Amino acid sequence: MISSIWDFNSLSEDDERKYILKMVNKTFESTSLQGKAFSLIKLWVHKDPDEMKKLHNLKNEVKRIADIVHHLQSYVKKKEDSPWAVSLRDVNRFCKLLVYFNENSNVPELGVFFNDRKTRGTMLYTKLEIAIMLSIYFCYVIRMRIQDKRDDLVKSCTRLGKHQQGISVDDFNDIVKKEQLHFLNQMQIKAGIGKNNPLSENIFVTVTCILNQIPLIITGNPGSSKTLAMNLILKSFKGPISNNEFFKQYPTLIGYYYQGSE
C-alpha cells in the first residue's frame, strides 16, 4: 500500500499568492463588484481613456485585496502554528462572501450605514471596503477566541483601500456590530434575554452561512447562546407567513434535530 500513498505537501508562499490573486481576479471578472463587470470594462478599454483608467484602478484594487487575503492566510498559519490551519477553501469562502456583503449593501435596511460612504472621524470607507471588512471578520477574525487576538489580527491588516495606516479597530468593530444587529433587532426576543456578543455573533454567522449555503459547526460552553440563536432564527425565518414583514423577503427555514437539544 505504501506505493499508493502520495504526499502532495502544501503550496509554496509564491504559489499561494498567485492562486489567491487569480481567485480574487476571477471574482471581479464574474461579478459587478465595482459597477460594471471586469470583463465589460475590458471590451471598451481601447475606445475610452476613462475606461482604461478604471481598468487600471480595478487591477490595483484586485492586487490590494489579494495581498490582504494572503497576509491573513499567513497570519493565521503563524498564530496557530500549523500550515494546515487555513487553505484555499478559506479564500474561496472570502470571495463568495465579498460578493454577498457587497450586494446586500443595496438592501434598504442596510442603507443606514452602507449607502455611499461610512464616515467615522477622518476615516472613510466605500461600500466595497465595508464588504471586505465583513468578509475578513467572517473568514478569519471569528476563529480567534480571545478579543485581544482578534484586535491584533485586525491591526495587522494594512493597505485596506486607500488607508495605508491600516484598518481602525474601532471602525472595524463598529461596522461588524451594526451588521450583527441587523437581523437581531428584527427578532422577537423575550424579556430578560440580553443582546450580548455571543448571541449577536452566533445569529450573524448562522444566518450568513444559511443564506450562502456554507456548512457551519458552532461549539462552545453551555450557556453561550448556541441553541438560543438557532431557535430565534427558526422562529423568525418563516418566509411569507413570518410575523415580521422584514423576514418575509427571506426563505422559510425548517430545523432538523439529531441527538441534540432544541
In short:
By secondary structure, the chain is mainly alpha-helical.
Total count of helical runs of at least 4 residues: 10
Low-confidence stretches are 106-117, 119-123
Structural class: mainly alpha
Between the first and last Cα atoms, what is the distance in angstroms? 45 Å
N-to-C SSE string, H for helix and E for strand: HHHHHEEHHHHH
Give, in spatial order, the strands making up the sheet with the most strands. 1-2
- The helix content, as a percent range, equals 40-55%
Shape: globular
- State the major sheet: 2 strands, antiparallel
Question: What is the mean pLDDT?
Answer: 80
Strand percentage: under 5%
Q: Kindly provide the radius of gyration, computed on alpha-carbon positions and rounded to a whole number of angstroms.
A: 20 Å
Number of E-state strands: 2
Structurally, the number of domains stands at 2
Kindly list the characteristics that best describe this protein:
10 helices; 262 residues; 2 domains; two-stranded antiparallel sheet; globular; 55% helix; mainly alpha
Characterize the structure shown:
This protein has 262 residues and is mainly α. It has 2 domains: 10-185, no CATH class; 206-254, no CATH class. It is 55% helix and 3% strand. The protein contains 10 helices and 2 strands; from the N terminus they run αααααββααααα. It has helices at residues 13-30, 38-44, 49-79, 88-104, 111-114, 127-139, 147-156, 169-184, 197-212, 226-236; strands spanning 117-120, 123-126. It has a two-stranded antiparallel sheet. A hairpin with a 2-residue loop joins strand 1 (117-120) and strand 2 (123-126). Helix 8 packs across helix 9 and helix 9 packs across helix 10.
